[in-house]
Amino acid sequence: MVETIEKWANQYGTEAGCFEFYMLGTRLLVVCREDRAREILALRPFKVTRSPEVQEAVYSVGGKGVFGAEGDQWIQEKKLVSSSLNEIHMQDYVPALRESAIALMQKWRVDAKKRPDSVVTVKRDMSHALADSVAKLFMGHNMDCLNNQKSDVAAMVFQLLKAVFLRFVSPVKYWRIPFIGQELDGFGQYLRRGMTVIDQMIMEFEEERATNSKTQSKTFLSKLYDAMEKEKSKLDHERIVGNIVTAFAAGIDTTSLTLLSALFILATNKEMQAELREHITDFDLEAAKIDDFYSKAPLLKSFLHEVHRYHCTPIITLQPTQDIPFGGTTLPKGARIMIFLSHIMLQKDSPADGVPAGPDDAPPHVFSHRRYLAPVNEDSTASNKEQKRQSVDPLTKGMSFLSFGHGVRSCPGRSYTEIFSYSFLIKMLQTFEFELAPNHPLVKIVADTVMAPDKDIELKLTPLSNDEM
């Protein structure tokens, strides 16, 4: 579907920056140029919201959290969730993220030794390591999904996004049918088992908090409850659970797919891999504070920014809650809008603002791991490539970082995703050289929750030392 819309965008959307088509009797507006997208996104979060079909699909699988919230509910929830995941609190979470990344390296070292070709399969282990990091960071629990891959919570989340997609495109809201609705697509059994585990964890947390809140470990839940008490603004149990489910879904699916793309890029470009490895050789992951991740590895930071840009969420669907101005005309209340992010990010003719060319003068449709490196000192006499670059361009302007949302609707979990990704990539580069397994099937980049490889990848690992971690 995305490939077809891409062809139409190139054919019909170049001049106006948008075009319309009909699908199943519904008129859809596709916005495929940045200036047009800005007109729509400037009206978030009240005059333009997520489509009700997306919200209902997400809510139907237990995800009643900040991701699907709109209006006044979103204002309350965003404030509480964001304050619990801000960069000050993230320092308390760094150990849990680091431990999960190290545990994955340990497992891969053992698994590679067991095979004569030293090959490991990436995505499932990556997803389970991320599930462990979410459980530790958000609830203080060690689920050890990495070594117990029959976890009910992980199984629920693996099935959750499939159910969301089926329910989003379904013309019939079958899940509403009493007693049997949740079973019709097979998701009900996973939902019950996963929710039982999450409910139990939250109950244990609340019992411990009632006894002595000051001795509780520093987790997202403890900080969320602190914020609710401070703001005198309480979320009900269903929405607390919904935010935990949302965190698991974002970690297990979106972050794992992004890192799968990162590994695929590095496995197929040994020169880039070697350059990044040399860059982070002396990075002390054990002693790292949160500021170190953002300041001491600028090339890695630029690489990860480019992965997020190049492998962004392909499309977001929105809907105006009232008549709104657009392109010299008026979009009626309830119009269906698709913001074609992946097309906007990679456009040759009308590149998005805030996407620098970098020292390699790379056009936006080309992946460039140095793109976000900026000159230390502006020197008009030096060529672009001769300028010394140690920092990273700010990404506060333009649309170059729409992977994490836009404006006030930006993702509150961005720091979590970035710190885990930095920890994982640093440890991976310090521990192994890696390449695609021999005779690896052809990999294509396709539309998923983000643009990502169309299949799991297998890596041949070569340890850089014989030391056990």
From TrEMBL:
Protein name stated in the entry: Hydroxyvitamin D-1 alpha hydroxylase, mitochondrial
SUPFAM superfamilies listed in its UniProt record: Cytochrome P450
GO molecular function, one term: iron ion binding
Binding-site residues, heme: C411
Keywords: Heme, Iron, Metal-binding, Monooxygenase, Oxidoreductase
Family: Belongs to the cytochrome P450 family.
Gene3D superfamilies in UniProt: Cytochrome P450 (1.10.630.10)
Keyword Iron set for record: yes
Required cofactor names: heme
